[in-house]
Design brief:
The complex is a heterodimer of chains A (516) and B (173). With 516 residues, chain A is of the alpha/beta class. In chain A, the strands form eight sheets. In chain A, strands 11-21-20-18-17-14-13-12 form an eight-stranded parallel beta sheet. The termini of chain A are far apart. Chain A is built from 15 helices and 23 strands. Chain A folds into two domains: 87 residues, Alpha-Beta Plaits, CATH 3.30.70; 336 residues, TIM Barrel, CATH 3.20.20.70. Chain B has 173 residues and is α+β, with helices and mostly antiparallel strands. Chain B folds into two domains: 102 residues, Alpha-Beta Plaits, CATH 3.30.70; 57 residues, Alpha-Beta Plaits. Chain B has six helices and eight strands; from the N terminus they run βααββαββαββαβα. In chain B, the strands form four sheets. Chain B has a two-stranded antiparallel ribbon with strand order 1-8. Chain B has a two-stranded antiparallel ribbon with strand order 2-3. The termini of chain B are far apart. The chains are: A alpha/beta (516), B alpha+beta (173). Chains A and B meet through helix 1, helix 4 and helix 14 of A and helix 1 and helix 2 of B.
Chain lengths: 516, 173
């Protein structure tokens, strides 16, 4: 067999003075990196199998293990980087499309890091969120264009207001009520384990926000969290029937995903086991292929038909939204989606995560979410239809600062996927597609799924939501704002740094140092 | 130091086998706790000949769970002990083996329904078993279980608060 030319990416350093041969590393590695030799009472590690998930390093009771990136895999070359060389070697061996997981790790400009948030000084007072009310409650759904009231005034009364009966005449369309502008993005049962779904669902339910089923159907163990579930209808329509649609609090039609715009999904047959086959409503062992397009949607008009069909199926009681990836013409596309009747538009940016995607697509297709939100919000306002839909931003929201910047750029709320998984243990090794996730997240292997105790997962996610919400309140208070609604699309609170004129124009913000 | 209770309120270690990941850190920390130095590296490198883990991880396929002495209310090992080494403390309910009195006859091992007493042959033959880390707030196996598969609680608390995320519990009120 010809020699494989790919070099190992990681180097495992084992401190012999600290290693007690307890074999925790051996038992925890699903890639069989570590091996115990009983004759020599020594542990050996195979660098080439290591994926850098750091499970062994984290669980080692004596800190004897260090996983290091091998910087010197190849001779330094700024053009032919290690990743290019490794990929070529891998493809020369396999002849296939290179798969990867999670969001892009390439050094694309992260605009969040070039945007700075404002604070109040002298001319308007800042607010202490611990002592004064601070509203971050968010409603997702179509807002009425105007409000009509029925006013019955008692003419005999002198006190005009006291005897006046005011009633809201306008019927407000169905809304999602979020206690914080953060939701958990679509991750299907199948791409992640049921314990992950349980953690997300329980945390969303406890905190008063929503999680999304992804295209995996709704497992019966999650029925109890239905009020906090957004059910997804994607191109494969797995697990979709009228009961499923009516179980959720909202329906989301998935057209695209930030990590792989224009690409469908493929859950291999070997992963479609008992529970997953039931939940997806397909026979056991069959491949679950989500086509790249919806085969009944080839235009905005077709999309409108599906939106209204879903509204009809859910008795007009639930918001129906559409998720698209951020692509070059996102502004007119979003405008079309809004006109097609979507109650919310989810936009997933270039750096959005995935369980499996061709690496070349993930790293090269789409546009960053920051630019997409700004241009969509701008376009919908110009056209006077912004009120008709909420905008949900997704695709690498890493901190509460990213959340607040997204909202100031024009989003109503954000979806977090990767951040949520990181909270419950993900170490971004990007090997989700292998199904051997050592952290028990992106796997269905019963040896591995046990590693995520949903009780712990729920607690950690709740803490994350709480922490971010507190920080959002702090930042709002600092800027002298007491309701997140007042920040929405309020780009005067943002300034760019190290950005050129075009970038600032697209983002619709001034450069740092520029005042009114 | 833990609050002392009668047997019915006694805190015990419960296992959620669906979350036991078979890492055996409970065994490792048990050994450290019962070593002379209580320092993990020193204990394993220099003192390990003497120390047996008093908690055992049983495994079949992907099913695993850690088991240690249940500290039974009618402990058969106490009945069976010929030298009076095995005693159940009336205040704490903890069953312990007085190693000075133990003669290594293994009667306790024969009668233990859980198979959680082991033979320690390193010095004088003695029975080795879980002492519930009586000087710790929480036993070390529970403290160090990375997935909280081990819980330390009394029976009432266990029945009132079933461990694990019971699905749908929140919305079913």
């Amino acid at each position: 067999m010809a020699l494989e030319l790919k070099q190992s990416e990681f180097e495992i350093e084992r401190d012999k003075n600290k290693c007690i041969s307890c074999e925790v590393c051996v038992r925890q590695c699903s890639n069989d990196v570590h091996e115990y030799d009983s004759d020599q009472d020594t542990l050996y590690s195979d660098n080439s199998k290591c994926v850098g998930c750091r499970r062994c390093e984290t669980l080692c009771p004596t800190g004897a293990l260090k996983i290091r990136n091998r910087e010197d895999q190849f001779k330094t070359n700024y053009n032919w980087t290690s990743s290019h060389l490794s990929n070529i070697y891998r493809q020369a061996d396999s002849g296939g499309v290179l798969l990867t997981g999670m969001g892009s790790d390439r050094a694309h400009t992260v605009y969040w890091d070039h945007i700075l948030f404002n604070a109040a000084q002298v001319t308007n007072p800042s607010i202490d969120p611990l002592r004064e009310p601070m509203e971050i409650r968010t409603f997702i759904g179509r807002k009425p264009e105007r409000l009509d009231f029925e006013i019955n005034r008692n003419k005999d009364s002198k006190e005009s207001l006291k005897d006046t009966n005011i009633k809201l005449k306008t019927k407000v369309p169905p809304q999602l009520d979020l206690s914080t502008p953060i939701m958990f993005s679509a991750m299907s049962y199948g791409s992640v384990s049921l314990n992950v779904c349980k953690s997300l669902a329980a945390a969303a339910s406890e905190f008063g926000t929503y999680y999304n089923t992804g295209e995996g159907g709704l497992h019966k163990d999650l029925y109890g969290y239905a009020k906090n579930t957004i059910v997804q209808v994607a191109s494969g329509r797995y697990g979709v029937d009228v009961d499923y649609l009516n179980k959720g609090a909202a329906v989301e039609i998935k057209i695209g995903q930030g990590a792989k715009p224009g690409i469908g999904g493929h859950l291999p047959g070997e992963k479609v086991t008992g529970d997953i086959s039931n939940t997806r409503m397909i026979p056991e062992g069959t491949d679950a292929i989500s086509p790249a397009p919806h085969h009944d949607i080839y235009s905005i008009e077709d999309l409108a038909q599906l939106i209204y069909a879903l509204k009809e199926a859910t008795n007009w009681l639930k918001p129906v939204g559409v998720k698209v990836s951020a692509v070059h013409n996102i502004a007119p596309i979003a405008s079309g989606i809004v006109r097609a009747g979507a109650d919310f538009v989810t936009i997933d940016g270039l750096r959005g995560g995935t369980g499996a995607a061709p690496q070349i697509i993930r790293d090269n297709v789409g546009i960053p979410i920051e630019l997409a939100i700004a241009s969509v919000d701008e376009r919908l306002r110009e056209e006077g239809i912004r009120y008709r839909s909420s905008i949900i931003a997704a695709g690498s929201i890493r901190s509460s600062a990213d959340v607040i910047k997204a909202i100031a750029l024009g989003a109503d709320a954000v979806y977090i996927g990767t951040a949520a998984l990181v909270a419950i243990g993900c170490h971004l090794c990007q090997k989700c597609y292998t199904g051997k996730c050592n952290w028990g997240i992106a796997t269905q292997d019963p040896y591995l799924t046990k590693r995520l105790n949903p009780e712990i997962g729920t607690r950690k996610l709740l803490n994350l939501l709480r922490g971010w919400s507190l920080e959002i309140k702090e930042m709002l208070g600092g800027a002298g704002i007491n309701a997140i609604e007042s920040l929405k699309s309020n780009r005067e609170h943002l300034r760019g740094i190290n950005l050129n004129d075009r970038e600032l124009a697209v983002l619709g913000i001034k450069h740092a140092g520029e005042a009114w | 130091m833990r609050e002392r209770h009668g047997d019915c309120k006694m805190k015990k270690i419960y296992i959620q086998e669906e979350y036991c990941i078979g890492c055996r850190l409970c065994e490792i920390y048990c050994q450290v706790k019962h070593s002379k130095s209580k320092k993990i590296i020193k204990a394993f490198k220099e003192e390990m000949i003497d120390i047996l883990p008093r908690v055992l991880v049983e495994e079949i396929g992907y099913n695993s769970f850690a088991i240690q002495c249940r500290h039974c209310s009618d402990a058969p090992c106490v009945e069976a002990c010929i030298s009076g080494a095995m005693q159940k403390n009336k205040n704490t309910g903890v069953v312990t083996c007085d190693e000075d009195k133990c003669v290594g006859c293994w009667s306790c091992i024969m009668v233990c329904p859980y198979g959680v007493i082991r033979r320690n042959l390193s010095g004088k033959k003695i029975a080795s078993k879980c002492d519930l880390c009586i000087d710790e707030e929480i036993p070390v196996c529970v403290q160090n279980c990375p997935n909280e598969a081990l819980k330390f609680m009394d029976k009432d608390a266990k029945e009132k608060n079933p461990v694990g995320t019971k699905t749908g519990r929140k919305n079913e009120k």
